[in-house]
Amino acid sequence: MSESRVAIVTGGARGIGAATAQRLARDGHAVAVVDLDESSCTDTVTRITKDGGHALGVGADVSNAEAVNEAVARIADVLGPPTILVNNAGVTRDNLLFKMTEQDWDTVMNVHLRGSFLMSKAAQAHMTQVQWGRIVNLSSVSALGNRGQANYSAAKAGLQGLTKTLAIELGKFNITVNAIAPGFIATEMTKATAERVGVSWEDFQKGAASQIPVGRVGQPEDIANTVSFLTSEESGFVSGQVIYVAGGPRT
């Protein structure tokens, strides 16, 4: 087993974030489950502790610098210096360009891109001190372009640029920075998309699976498994990469 570390997972209350938090706990790490509402983290924290792991629920708006700094300081005080960070927090405000409001744009950019910047900046202070760290940013296949997601696509593409730049800057401190770009993953977020376009959840998944080479949609655990590798000791020579976990090749 890898050495026990302190991990932070943003957007950890549900979906990919919850699966990732639970997986990192099974890997032996103490996990800070961060979400906008601290009470929403309870289920994830409870599952981890029931399985014998150690977790802390933390409420924080990742787009707010003061809130981020307070959250990371609290995590360091309670669990120890965080050296694993998974920037997973995200929202969608989908619409075609002519219908998209400035608030739709700003909200998505602030959570995904500004949030990952602020969290990475706060966490790297602890990582550089101990000369070890792992940062994983959640991008998306939407970074390649997706109708009705100008804001989300731009934010997810921006995360790939952030990933590569931080990998260059932080590498000398034995910190790796990578991104995962999920394809279709069955979560509340994709379920909401099905509702928005007026398709049943079952048909939405079947339609997606028919376009995926492996013939199925992804599950949150598929992403969590990849995070597990990228945050391990063994992944130390993998940095600045964008891994498309999408059931087939995406370019």
Structure in a nutshell:
With 251 residues, the protein is an alpha/beta fold. Helices cover 46% and strands 15% of the residues.
Assess the beta-strand content as a share of residues. Answer: 15-25%
Strand order of the largest sheet: 3-2-1-4-5-6-7
CATH topology of the largest domain: Rossmann fold
Fraction of residues in helices? 40-55%
Please provide the ordered H/E string of secondary-structure elements: EHEHEHEHEHEHHHE
Poorly predicted sequence stretches spanning 5 or more consecutive residues: none
Major beta sheet, specifics?
Answer: 7 strands, parallel
Question: Which structural class should the secondary elements be placed in?
Answer: alpha/beta
Shape: globular
Give the termini separation: 34 Å
Supply the CATH class of the largest domain: Alpha Beta
Count all strands and give the number: 7
Mean pLDDT: 97
Tell me what the structure shows.
By secondary structure, this protein is α/β, with parallel strands linked by helices. It folds into two domains: 6-183 and 220-244, NAD(P)-binding Rossmann-like Domain (Rossmann fold); 188-217, no CATH class. It has eight helices and seven strands; from the N terminus they run βαβαβαβαβαβαααβ. The chain has helices at 15-26, 42-50, 65-78, 102-130, 150-170, 188-197, 201-210, 220-230; strands at residues 6-10, 30-35, 55-59, 84-87, 133-138, 175-182, 242-245. The chain has a seven-stranded parallel beta sheet, with helices on both faces. Strand 4 (84-87), helix 4 (102-130) and strand 5 (133-138) form a beta-alpha-beta unit. The relative contact order is 0.14.
